[in-house]
Design goal:
The protein is α/β, with parallel strands linked by helices. It contains 15 helices and twelve strands. About 45% of the residues lie in helices and about 15% in strands. β7, α8 and β8 (about 185) form a beta-alpha-beta unit. α1 (about 15-30) packs parallel to α14, α4 packs across α15 and α7 (about 145-155) packs across α8 (about 170-180). The radius of gyration is 20 Å and the shape is globular.
Length: about 325
C-alpha cells in the first residue's frame, strides 16, 4: 500500500467551475464516461456521469458503450471495471489510491485458508484485488451479501461451508441475517472500523429521535443490532444499508424533514443532502474519511483524461478467472 497521502488542497468555487468544464470537454473528446463512488469529494461527484456504490458502479462499467472509463474510486474498483470491460480503456486518476480492506488478505493467505476447508464455497467482498477475485466463487457487495449467501445455502444446502471475507463486520452482519455461522476472515476497512459503538452512544444522546443509517462494514454495526434486540432502539428507526440503500432512503424521505445519523464514510453526505435537502443528515463520526478515496481530485481527473494516464489493465488470463464471481454477483443483484 502507498504511504498515507496528505489531504489535497481545497479548491475555490471558480477553480471548480473551470476544472469541471475542462473535465467535461475532455470526456466528450475522449468518448469517456466518468464513474465516481459515493465517497469521492463533492466536486468529483458533481463532474461524473454516474455516482454510485460498488454494485451500481460494477453494473455501469459492464454496460457503458464509451471507449474510455475514468474511474473515480480506489484501485480495486478500476480493476473490476477492466475485468468486466476488457475492450475499454480504464483509467484511474491516481494509481496509488488503494484500499486498506483489499490489502487485508493476500492470495497466499486465501489459498492457505481454502486448503484448510477444501469443500467450502469462497465468498469475497468486491473490495478485493483481481488476484483474490480469481480465487473466489462468488463476489458480493454490502447491498447483496446476504442475498448471495442465501442463494448459496438454497442451492447447496443449509449446511454448506462458506468462507466469507475479508471484512469481519460485514461477515458478522451476514451471519446474523442468515442465522448461522460462517468462516469469517479477520479484515476490516480502516474507515468503517473507526466508527465505534461510543460514536453511536454519543449520537443517540444528541439526537434521540433520529433514524440510524448504518453501513454493515462499520465497527458499530454489532452494537446497533444489540440495541435493537434489547429494545433500546426501535427496529423501524434502524436501517442497515449499503451506500446505494442510503440514497434510496434519502429519496423516500425527501420532504419529510427529521434527522438521520449516517454511519459510513463522510463523502456520502453530499448525495444524501442533495436527494433530501430538508432532512438533517449527520455523520456518526465526522473523522470517517477515506484518505485513499480523497486522493482523487478534479485536477488529477482532468490530467488523466487529457493524457490518458493511470491506465488499469488486468492480465487476460487472470481477468477471465476473476470475471465469473463478479458476473455471479451482478446476476444475483
Amino acid at each position: 500500500m502507498a504511504p498515507s497521502p496528505t489531504a489535497p488542497q481545497a479548491l475555490t468555487a471558480d477553480e471548480i467551475s473551470v476544472l469541471t468544464a475542462e473535465v467535461r470537454a475532455l470526456a466528450a473528446e475522449r468518448n469517456a464516461v466518468i464513474l465516481a463512488h459515493n465517497y469521492q469529494v463533492p466536486e468529483v461527484q458533481d463532474a461524473a456521469d454516474y455516482v454510485g456504490d460498488s454494485l451500481g458502479l460494477s453494473r455501469k462499467a459492464a454496460a457503458v458503450d464509451a471507449e474510455v472509463i475514468a474511474f473515480c474510486g480506489v484501485h480495486f474498483m478500476a480493476e473490476t471495471a477492466s475485468i468486466l470491460s476488457p475492450e475499454k480503456t480504464v483509467l484511474i486518476p491516481d494509481l496509488d489510491a488503494g484500499c486498506s480492506l483489499a490489502d487485508s488478505i493476500t492470495p497466499e493467505q486465501l489459498t492457505a485458508w481454502q486448503a484448510k476447508h477444501p469443500d467450502a464455497v469462497t465468498v469475497m467482498y468486491v473490495n478485493t484485488t483481481a488476484e483474490i477475485k480469481a480465487l473466489t466463487d462468488y463476489c458480493v457487495t454490502s447491498s447483496n451479501a446476504v442475498k448471495v449467501v442465501q442463494h448459496i445455502l438454497a442451492e447447496r444446502g443449509a449446511d454448506a461451508e462458506i468462507l466469507f471475507g475479508p471484512d469481519m463486520w460485514l461477515g458478522a452482519y451476514v451471519e446474523k441475517q442468515v442465522g448461522r455461522s460462517l468462516h469469517v476472515w479477520d479484515g476490516e476497512c480502516h474507515v468503517h472500523a473507526g466508527i465505534r459503538p461510543k460514536d453511536i452512544t454519543t449520537m443517540r444522546a444528541e439526537h434521540p429521535d433520529a433514524d440510524f443509517l448504518i453501513h454493515p462494514e462499520c465497527g458499530c454495526s454489532t452494537q446497533v443490532m444489540e440495541y435493537v434486540a434489547a429494545g433500546d432502539i426501535a427496529t423501524e428507526g434502524v436501517h442497515m444499508l449499503s451506500t446505494g440503500g442510503m440514497l434510496d432512503y434519502a429519496k423516500e424521505h425527501a420532504g419529510q424533514g427529521g434527522t438521520a445519523i449516517m454511519a459510513t464514510e463522510t463523502g456520502m453526505l453530499h448525495q444524501l443532502r442533495m436527494a433530501a435537502p430538508d432532512v438533517d443528515f449527520v455523520a456518526a463520526n465526522e473523522r470517517a474519511s477515506c484518505r485513499y478515496m480523497k486522493m482523487i481530485t478534479l485536477p488529477k481527473l482532468r490530467d488523466c483524461l487529457r493524457d490518458l494516464s493511470g491506465r488499469v489493465q488486468v492480465d487476460p488470463a487472470l481477468a477471465e478467472r476473476a470475471r465469473l464471481p463478479i458476473e455471479r454477483m451482478v446476476a444475483i443483484g
